[in-house]
Request: fold
Amino acid sequence: MSLLMNYTDQRFVEIAQKVFQEQFKRDPKLETELDERRKRLMYEDVVYNISYLMTAVHFSDGKIFEGYAAWIYELLCNLMKDLDRDRIMEHMNDHYRILSEILNDYSEALLTEEELNKAADYLNRAIAVTEKAVTKVTLSSDFQEGKHYNVRKTYLDALLNNQTREAHRVITEAKEQGAALVEIYEEVLAKVMIEVGNLWHKSIITIDKEHYITSVTQSVMAGFYDEIFSQPRKSKRILSCAVGSELHEVGVRMLSDMFEYRGWDSFYLGAALPAASILQAINEHQPEIVAFSVTMPLYLQELEQTVKAVKEKYPEVKIAVGGQAFNNTDKLWEKWEIDYYSTTAAALVNWAEQEVH
Reply:
């Protein structure tokens, strides 16, 4: 028996059964997400949810149920790590809406009109609390340091809540208030994408959420293209890409945009290119610098082989590398025949401006 089961009034048990059945009826995905043990505990917890709601109604104290809603949400996030915070929020808020509907059907036998109104109000408050809790995650110290923290936190919150328009608005407003393109790229977008990767590694968000955030960030970056491509040209060229089957390419795309903004002609190849194709692209575009990015450590060996191939065939081309994959290495880049290792796109741009005249 669940430790959360403490309410045995038969009327509430009947309501719990109806809520439980209706939730599966409206959300077929639950059948595959919950095994038999989870289904049993879910039913028992529905009874417990009702008991907390009735306690709040009895005392006319909505904070009782608000606090409970926040607590049960975090508990479920810890117990069901195979589901992301969005999915658990969706599950709980569907539950609160269904409960409100079914309580209304039982109103004459169970609640007065005044009590029913209180219950509906407290359930709506629980929905709001749960929606807000989605973004209440522990963020890394690196994410919290540096300029424009409020902007990147607000931007990340919008993305975690699937608020695409709000995410775009946050960046547009930051730009209108004077934040430079380089600052927005480095201090907001880049740091948010790194933090999103951290949240995925911790199973706080799922891969589909990461892909959604990546897609929105790419569309946000596209909004700067008029400004980026209107800058005077310098007759300098850089070729950039993510190596092999590396799919985390937003960082290297940001790098290319920042070089374009500084007047370079950038040839951004994306990801998943074999070394032969990269060599062919170098021959075609004749860049002064080739920049490689790698996010996942399992692609470091492939990057090393690509660097060797480029250096062997084009020794005059300067090679720069970077990416999170190097963070947990013993300065691996120092063992390779490269010209520059960079932790930020801005640092690489500044180095390149000095090296290429």
Remarks:
- The chain has 17 helices and five strands.
